[in-house]
């Protein structure tokens, strides 16, 4: 039974990867807006229904790392931060470990595709916005304040940083600059 479960899991992972690779190849070759789900399904040798079963959010989801539950991942980064590190430090490090913000990371074709495609930028922002409740709670706990308008605003501003920085020539440096400004503005430098 264990071998069968392992085989099933491996087959699902291969199918997911085939769909994702087919989509990315088509998007990069022809542009996101010029590719249909039917074309992706054909290229991956699966049905459109199979594409939706693996990627229920549709075309947008095909471009992003889907195995990550972003709110859970950011919560873990906050909970496991080192001694003396603030919530802001943990979130900054978390952002810097992703996509175009990784150290020494030159923009990949996928990152350029995201930066140049409005629906993909919106989807990326939606994924960051899903972290707001986790971040609000952590900021409120750390500052010993209620989740008031100030805490909500800070959480929202922090989660806008990836969108703003991804559009800049040096995304990693921009992340650092924006965190520095937010810390100073909120008196948490």
TrEMBL record:
Domain of life of the source: Bacteria
Keyword Kinase in record: no
Protein name: TetR family transcriptional regulator
GO molecular function term, any single one: transcription cis-regulatory region binding
Record Gene3D superfamilies: Homeodomain-like, Tetracycline Repressor, domain 2
Record keywords: DNA-binding, Transcription, Transcription regulation
Stretches assigned to the HTH tetR-type domain: 13-73
Pfam families for this protein: TetR_N
InterPro entries, A to Z: Homeodomain-like_sf (IPR009057), HTH-type_TetR-like_transc_reg (IPR050109), HTH_TetR (IPR001647)
DNA-binding region (UniProt annotation): 36-55
Record bears the keyword DNA-binding: yes
